Amino acid sequence: MIPTKEALPTLEDACVIQVGGTLADWVGTADWIALAARLGSVRPTIIVPTGGPFVDTVREAEDMWRLQPAVVRRMTLLAMDSFALLLHGIHPEIGIAAGPAEMKANAAAGQASVWLPSSLAETRRELVEDWDAASDSLAAWLAVEIGAERLILVKAGTCPCHSVEALGADTAAMVRDGVLSPGFPVWRRRFGGAVWCVERERVEDVAAALEQGGGFGCPLAATPLMGVAAPDR
C-alpha cells in the first residue's frame, strides 16, 4: 500500500548522489548503487544519473544533423533516463522517481530513488528550454529544489583534495579544469547543504564517513563564477 501524502517523509535530510557518466562501464559502479541502497533504508537518498554512453549517440546525431538546441536538450534528458534505468536494472531494489512525490514514497518504503530527469520537460519546461545543464548542475538544482542535506558528486578523475583549503575547493577553478560544468557554481551558491566531490574508487571511505555522520573528499565551497546566471526556479 502506498502511504498517504500526510505520512510521506520530507526530503530535508536527503542525500543526493550524482553518478558520473564515465562510471557506466566500470564494475565498481555497482558498489555505489549498493551504498545508495543502504543509505536509502535510513534516509531519503536520490541518485542523479548522467547520460552515460547513451548521450554519445545524442552528440553524434547533433553533429550529423545540426539539430536545434531544444531538441538536443530533450534527447539528452532521455539519455539520462536510459542511464537511470540501467542503474535501476543493476539494483532493482532502488526505485525510480520522476519527482519529489515518488522520491518521498520510495523513502517511506525504505528505498533509495534514481531520478528520471526527463520529467523536467513537462514539469519545468522553461528550465529545460533556457538552460544547458550537465548532470552535476542538475544534481545541485535538485538538491536545492527538495531542500536536501548533502550532495555527493562521484567523479572518475582526481578531485583536487590536495589543494583544498579549510573553506572548501575552488569551484571556479574546477570548472576551468573541466571537473565541473559551467552552471554548477551558481547552484552551489543557492544550496545550503554540504557538497563533496569524491573519486569513484573511494566508495568504502564515503560509506564509513556517512555512517559516522562526517564528511569526506573535497568539500566544495559556494564560490560561483562571476557573470554566470542561473535560470529562475
UniProtKB/TrEMBL annotation:
InterPro entries for the chain: AceGlu_kinase-like_sf
Keywords, in A-Z order: Kinase, Transferase
MF-aspect GO terms: kinase activity
Name of the featured protein: Uridylate kinase
Originating organism: Skermanella cutis
